[in-house]
Design goal:
CATH class: Alpha Beta
Largest sheet: 6 strands, parallel
Strand content: 5-15%
Number of helices: 8
Strand order of the largest sheet: 3-4-2-1-5-6
Bound molecules: 3-methylbut-3-enyl trihydrogen diphosphate, magnesium ion
CATH superfamily: Decaprenyl diphosphate synthase-like
CATH architecture: 3-Layer(aba) Sandwich
Number of strands: 6
CATH topology: Undecaprenyl pyrophosphate synthetase
Length: about 230
């Protein structure tokens, strides 16, 4: 069966999941982080090459301070423990997004996990924090300007090679939980020809079974990339 090489995950619905149970939204983020670990395990089992997780967008700073703090603290605790455990299973970890707005502690934990896994050959686990697709493109252009790019003759590859995802394949399958059918600024360049799987399931209720069902539906899609069929 045709399997996606790069799967993107927009893990939405933590807040609504919590509110439906009269819990604080932060409890939803905690529950969401837990299920995330199960999905990473399943991605390894299914031999997915790249899994990109949207954890915090450039727009999520607009949320109340206590929610932002809570998300960052959950992130730190996973970077300190669970993520490191995955590295022992050969996971190659990396973070995308603008780190300059993150705390020194978060930045340290991120680069530590990245360094420890640099030689790993297993699942590429990409964590998007303070990530926005528009910001990714803008930063790519700024990097090109710093390299004195000849903008009049700029090529597709120049821009692509300066994105955060420079060495990663484009997204094959994008999964979004919780009913919304939008990208919310996630990998807008990289997902140009992605297939989409939308589900009403709120992220903390997402299961490994539904994840593998999403992977299976990908096998039934006919991708054309603008051509008449996928053979020409
Ligand atoms: C996704 O869940 C997590 C982040 C955006 C950090 P939400 O917090 O957006 O949950 P809803 O969409 O409000 O239910
Ligand atoms: C997208 O969810 C961001 C993450 C999952 C990290 P949002 O909840 O922020 O998106 P909108 O606001 O509903 O578009
Ligand atoms: Mg949301």
């Amino acid at each position: 069966m045709n399997k996606p090489c790069h799967v993107g995950l927009i893990m939405d619905g933590n807040g609504r999941w919590a509110s439906n149970q009269n819990l604080n939204r932060n409890e939803g983020h905690k529950a969401g982080a837990k299920i995330c670990m199960d999905i990473i395990h399943e991605a390894i089992n299914l031999d997915i090459k790249v899994l990109s997780l949207f954890a915090f967008s450039t727009e999520n700073w607009l949320r109340p301070d206590d929610e932002v703090l809570s998300i960052m603290s959950i992130l730190n605790s996973y970077l300190e423990s669970e993520i490191l455990a995955f590295l022992k299973r050969g996971v190659h970890f990396r973070v995308i997004g603008d780190r300059s707005k993150l705390s020194t502690k978060t930045r340290f934990l991120m680069s530590n996990a990245e360094k420890l896994s640099i030689k790993n050959k297993g699942l590429k686990l990409v964590l998007a924090v303070n990530y926005g697709g528009q910001d990714d493109i803008l930063r790519s252009i700024k990097k090109l300007a710093e390299k004195n790019c000849d903008f009049k003759n700029i090529q597709f590859d120049d821009l692509q090679e300066n994105l955060d995802t420079t060495d990663l394949p484009t997204v094959d399958l994008m999964i979004r939980t919780s009913g919304e059918q939008r990208l919310s600024n996630f990998m807008i360049w990289q997902a140009a020809y992605a297939e989409y799987y939308f589900t009403q399931t709120q992220w903390p209720d997402f299961t490994v079974e539904e994840f593998s069902q999403a992977i299976n539906t990908f096998g039934q899609r006919e991708r054309r990339f603008g051509k008449i069929d996928n053979k020409s």
